[in-house]
What does this fold into?
Amino acid sequence: MRRNLSRMLVISLLSALILLSVGCEGEVSFTTAKLSEATMALGVTDDNKPVNATKVFSPDTEEIFCSVKLSNAPSDTQVTSVWIYVGGEEEDLTNYEIDNYSVITEGTRYINFSLPRGDNAFPKGDYKLVLYVDGKESVALPFTVR
It folds into this structure.
């Protein structure tokens, strides 16, 4: 009798936890994918590892890179980069989203994202790159152009 009562209590608690985690939307999201070793750099190798790591770039830098290690990603894992101009010499722009890009991938590997300069120099100021895994913020990397 006591054993059945304990089992019923455990089942009830588990059911309550599942209902709480599901919430009002009816969706549970979980991924084993993790990002680590996120590094801003002037370039990347053929296997996407950083070359000339730095957090400070000049306005005439051709392209700004980020190398990051993705680990334990199930198939169809989406990693998104959002490049943001936080503020600086362009006084009318603060927290301005410059660009974003997503990649669907899996496994354990280095991946990279980059922001090419375009026709004009990068404005001097503070920037950040925010990386998301399946829509959830994972890493934010501040960097500067001066």
Observations:
- The first strand starts at residue 34 and ends at 44.
- Residues 13 and 98 are 47 Å apart (CA to CA).
- The helical segments are 2-22.
